[in-house]
Amino acid sequence: xxxxxxxxxxxxxxxxxxxxxxxxxxxxxxxxxxxxxxxxxxxxxxxxxxxxxxxxxxxxxxxxxxxxxxxxxxxxxxxxxxxxxxxxxxxxxxxxxxxxxxxxxxxxxxxxxxxxxxxxxxxxxxxxxxx
Length: 131
Ligand SMILES: [Zn+2]
Ligand SMILES: [Zn+2]
Known about the structure:
Layout: E1 5-9, E2 16-20, E3 25-29, H1 32-38, E4 43-49, E5 53-56, E6 60-65, E7 71-76, E8 83-88, E9 94-98, E10 112-114
Parallel strand pairs: 3-10
Antiparallel strand pairs: 1-2, 2-5, 3-4, 4-9, 6-7, 7-8, 8-9
Bound molecules: zinc ion (2 copies).
One zinc ion (ZN) binds near residues 33, 34, 43 and 115.
């Protein structure tokens, strides 16, 4: 069987990644930091095993502390500013890629929804297997 290969890139195309195989999990996050990072109501992180993702292009780094007190290293394009991927210190085996950066984001469906306490009331998901 052929391995699935997905590509994701920033707005201008300078920074991109390729990911092999299927994601480990896909997390819709309603935390305030994701709202600010995206400028939208929530962020969606597509997690892969770190060794399955290869990046190309220049990236700048922004590190912030998560609620756990561990850092998260965000990589964004220095030209257009899109955050394409990030690496949580608390899961050194995983890398998160922004769902909206994928070529075919509609093929990627969240498996969980987190930080519900700051979810905007008008945001409602109908996740497979969820309630
Ligand atoms: Zn860019
Ligand atoms: Zn978040």
